[in-house]
Amino acid sequence: MKKTIENEPDAKEAIRSRALELGFDVVGFAPAALNENARNRLSEFISNGYHGDMGWLAERTQQRSQPIDLWPRVQSVIVVGLNYGSDEDPLEVIGKPERGSISVYARGRDYHDVVKKKLRSLARFIVDELSGDVKFFVDTAPVMEKPLAQKAGLGWQGKHTNLVSKTVGSWLFLGEIFTNLSLGPDSESKDICGSCSRCLTACPTEAFPAPYKLDAQRCISYLTIEHKGHIPREFRRAIGNRIYGCDDCLAVCPWNKFAKKTNEFELEARLELKWPRLADLVQLNDTDFRTIFSGSPVKRLGRDRFIRNVLIAIGNSGILELAALAKARLIDESPLVRAMAVWALLQLLPNKNFQQIRLHHRNRETNIEVLKEWDNPY
């Protein structure tokens, strides 16, 4: 016979215990309501256009603003966190221009798959043992995860707008279970960033117009992952060799003194994704790209946008030997790739050599964005 919440005063601890058994590092309980401050921050983010190409953020804003608008039956929100920390300095690769920097979170298996599997087991436990109805989410629904996590006591939103935990630092994947069970909330985490501003000053593209405010259109993670078009020229130099995401604002946080390596083997970095060679990556065709990044969140980016990013890194490398590989991409089928091949060559080659290549290729080009790269060198 199933248990009921009325006969189970320690239901929270049963859920917490089960979540930790499943491998989650932290778990907390939040009320199914967000305060006005969280709603206002979302509204301001959208109204300022800081979301850029991420039109899905502007959609269903009402459901994002209140859990009950996403599911009317929700009474409580269980928030879990899974540590994906590395035992290496995530910024070390930035000093190796022949290599590409892939954000720590994307070096292992796609976190959606890993977290969802564990969440499904936890949800089944709540249904079977506590007769609760549930819905669970992993970064794929209109849920304001970080404000809910703060209300659940997992940490606070730092000045870089990401969650910071006193126990595991900055490296957390979040997941949520909405339930119709009335579970008492945990104590909300307090913001203890104090006067520290390391995350703000570390940003290579100055993506923070003010503390606790992010202009995603300037963020390297947005530019290299979410942005579908040509990356604006003003940001290309600052991107350096970051070919998928950016960890700078997270990595410099002093609270990472409490960070530890993940215990989840599926999230550990695959060797070929730690410090990949730009010379190898730029030559990938679509089949090779899909094979290498199978099971990785990088795969969702698609080959063309990924090679776009790699060519920017090549242009920033200062390694003349990579110019021949960039030149080979001038006849790529993708205009995203061809445009950045032009830019990379302009950075690497003496003007005389660049102009010789331009004479051969420019008149064959038909895409207006690629022509802009040929005709507006800087």
What can be said about this structure in brief?
By secondary structure, the protein is α+β, with helices and mostly antiparallel strands.
Query: In what order do the strands lie side by side in the largest sheet?
Result: 1-2-7-4
The largest pleated sheet is described as: 4 strands, antiparallel
| Mass-distribution shape | elongated
Q: Indicate the mean pLDDT.
A: 91
SSE class: alpha+beta
Distance between the termini: 73 Å
- Count of individual beta strands: 8
Helicity, as a percent range? 40-55%
Estimated radius of gyration: 23 Å
Spans of at least 5 consecutive residues whose pLDDT stays below 50 are 1-8
What percentage of amino acids are in beta strands? 5-15%
Topology:
Layout: H1 11-21, E1 26-31, H2 36-47, H3 55-58, H4 61-65, H5 67-70, E2 76-83, E3 101-102, H6 111-130, E4 134-137, H7 145-151, E5 156-157, E6 163-164, E7 172-179, H8 198-202, H9 220-226, H10 233-239, E8 242-244, H11 248-251, H12 271-274, H13 278-281, H14 286-292, H15 303-317, H16 323-328, H17 335-348, H18 351-361, H19 368-375
Parallel strand pairs: 3-8
Antiparallel strand pairs: 1-2, 2-7, 4-7, 5-6
Question: How would you sum up this structure, described in words?
Answer:
The chain is 41% helix and 9% strand. With 378 residues, it is α+β, with helices and mostly antiparallel strands. Among the domains are: 5-91 and 105-179, no CATH class; 277-378, no CATH class. The protein has a 4-stranded antiparallel beta sheet, sandwiched between helices. A two-stranded parallel ribbon has the order 3-8. A two-stranded antiparallel sheet has the order 5-6. Strand 5 and strand 6 form a beta hairpin. Helix 15 (303-317) runs parallel beside helix 17 (335-348) and helix 17 (335-348) runs parallel beside helix 19 (368-375). Mean pLDDT is 91; it is low at 1-8.
